[in-house]
Amino acid sequence: MRNTKPTLMVLLVCVFASSFSPLRIEAQQAVPQPSGKTKIILDTDIGDDVDDAFALALAMRSPEVEMVGITTAWGDTALRARLVQRFLKENGAAEIPIAVGIETKSNANFSQSRWAQDGLPFERKLDAVDFLLEQARKAPGEITLVAIGPLTNVGAAIERDAATFKKFKRVVLMGGSIRKGYGDLGYAPDHGPQPEYNIYSDVAAAQKVFASGVPIFMMPLDSTQLMLDEVKRNILFSAGTAMTNSLAAQPANLSSPFPR
Fold it and tell me: Between β-strands 126-127 and 98-100, what pairing exists: parallel, antiparallel or unpaired?
């Protein structure tokens, strides 16, 4: 399995950006306790590759995180919502709201489409842009928007109501490339920065996010790439839990037309 468009680090930043997590360095060492869970909305193009499924699993299993909702981004967003619905149901979290994002043309291979189609028809017809703005109004200054796909939904929310969008606590996003490109994992000389998929796919939306005035924690390719090698995969998938079984069923995208 090659390295993928990585998003796990984005979730970790979301969890730890505003409070110290009680990581146990020594058993006797007293550490500050977090004041409460970090409320997040996950905006994701889940389905094209395995990274977003792992990010969703991490968010669901992180006690520091409260999942306010999930919005689907880019390409066939209705089928992506169906995939999320199946993933949540199989892992005891069917109550988390799912909102369908703006459908776009995508040349990426929806590698997990069959798994999504084998699930039940999508039941809840929420609109992603409406959902984002509604949640920002309900809990001003409390919600972190975690964007791990192209920023089309986010840009549309800003275009519709920039003042309400500013009620988000922050945006944590995976995007961009500064000095390293795809596949620069330290095993060979770096070949330099490359256009990064999430930003490149909708540059205009990204520009709206950067100009929104909301604090941004941006994780470029330089800081997020990792390899899930065969040894780690075998350890993970041998657990045989509902979650690891769901992850094991997600095929990687090996034929993307874009260098990811």
Answer: parallel
Q: Which CATH number does the domain housing residue 81 bear?
A: 3.90.245.10
Based on the structure, what is the number of domains in the chain?
1
Q: How far is CA 86 from CA 60, 69, 70, 89, 232, in A?
A: 14, 15, 13, 5, 25
Spatial distance between the Cα atoms of 14 and 44, rounded to a whole number of angstroms = 15
Residue showing tokens 């999430």:
198
Distance CA 133, CA 214 (A): 14
Tokens found for residue 161:
């109501």
- At 173, the amino acid letter reads L
Quick one: tokens of 6? 């990585």
pLDDT in tens, 160-216: 999 999 999 999 999 999 999 998 988 889 999 999 999 999 999 999 999 999 999
- Does the residue 156 lie in any domain? yes
Q: Which domain holds residue 49?
A: 8-12+35-245
Q: What is the pTM of this model?
A: 0.85
Q: Is residue 2 part of a domain?
A: no
Tell me the DSSP string of 136-160.
HHHSTTTEEEEE-S-SHHHHHHHHH
